[in-house]
Amino acid sequence: MRIYERYFARQVYLAFIFILFAFSGLFFFFDLINELNTVGHGNYKFGYAVLRVALQTPSRFYEIIPVAALISAIYVFAQMAANSEYTIFRVSGLSTGQALRSLLKIGIPLVLVTYFIGEVVGPYSDQLSERVRLEALGSAVSSNFQSGVWVKDTLTEREDGQQVTRFVNVGELMPDATITNVRIYEFDPGFRLTNLRTAQTGRYEGNGHWLLKGVTDTQLTSLPPPAQKTPADALNPVYRATQVTLPQYSLRSELTPQILSVLLVAPDRMSMYNLFRYIQHLVENHQDTQRYEIALWKKLLYPFAVLVMLVLSLPFGYLHTRAGVVGVKVFGGIMLGMSFQLINTLFSHVGMLNTWPAPVTAATPGLIYLALGLAGLKWVDRH
């Protein structure tokens, strides 16, 4: 790396670390205040609140990194402009294109760090944070429905070769990924109800099997039609029901705790791997996937917002001190970063409402700000 690139990198990285921790500390304070409403319920003490908020810090890092990169780069270039350092670099032969390429090289490690936090550290710490809270409160997770969460499960490989469609109702998902108050409705390929199975609890055993306990299995067998043609009797049963009670039962299913864990973590905070698996599950069961596809594409493209923010910051190095003091430039950078986050979130909702393609919805905010950055560079280069 050239001498001026090392100088740029050292200045940007030092400012980036300071701004990242400053912003994360501010969010930590606000998140902790928000958690105080829950302190005192059950065993949820102040220490648990601090631990929960601390475990959410990696996700805050993930959200803040592009904005921190923008502000730190603007601060560095504004300082250089104020001290005429950047002017000396330009007089020495540093062109706008060379400066842009050097800045993008500086941003590549930040992109990799963003991917690592968003894919490895963040989802795990968020799930752990939610479990800490739930275990302290002694509560469970369930959907907004009073009956719990409903999941469609299609089993394509059965002993007799027939496809089985299940609708699984989970009353509660406990923090340790065990399930309670389970009801399973099985249908044959003609969508006729063939089995109703209820269980008190269930635990995932691995290899696609759940161990259900306290099971009541009701097998429904359709009766042959009567030999004589008589009007149908409403009181005459169509099915014969055979009920068996079992202490435990091993159920083969395509569902996994990772699929059910979407109740613990919002789609935007899930890893791309878990999002991809859940989208596959929804596709196999012919369910809507747009919300999760948008989240997947945002996770894929969001780290590159660091490079977009760095492009936006470079024009500030061409503005002399008389065009605005350093503080004003930094404030402008904060406003730019906040507007990017707002538009990014807005496009997710608008794209979901208008059923836009997920790649377009996720990429449009970044492309808009990239165009603004390149237009700004072209303008300052001319003037």
Can you describe this structure?
The protein is α+β, with helices and mostly antiparallel strands and 383 residues long. The protein folds into 2 domains: 3-138 and 286-382, no CATH class; 149-263, no CATH class. Helix content is 55%, strand content 18%. The protein has helices spanning 3-35, 46-55, 57-82, 85-91, 96-137, 257-260, 272-284, 290-301, 305-313, 326-353, 358-382; strands at 149-155, 164-173, 179-187, 193-206, 209-222, 239-252. A 6-stranded antiparallel sheet has the order 1-2-3-4-5-6. The radius of gyration is 28 Å and the shape is elongated. The two termini are 29 Å apart. The model has no long low-confidence stretch (mean pLDDT 82). This is LPS export ABC transporter permease LptG. The chain crosses the membrane at residues 12-30, 61-82, 103-124, 300-318, 330-350, 356-377. It is found in: Cell membrane.
Task: Break the fold down into its secondary structure elements and pairings.
Blueprint lengths: L2 H33 L10 H10 L1 H26 L2 H7 L4 H42 L11 E7 L8 E10 L5 E9 L5 E14 L2 E14 L16 E14 L4 H4 L11 H13 L5 H12 L3 H9 L12 H28 L4 H25 L1
Antiparallel strand pairs: 1-2, 2-3, 3-4, 4-5, 5-6
Membrane topology: Multi-pass membrane protein
Keywords: Cell membrane, Membrane, Transmembrane, Transmembrane helix
Subcellular location: Cell membrane
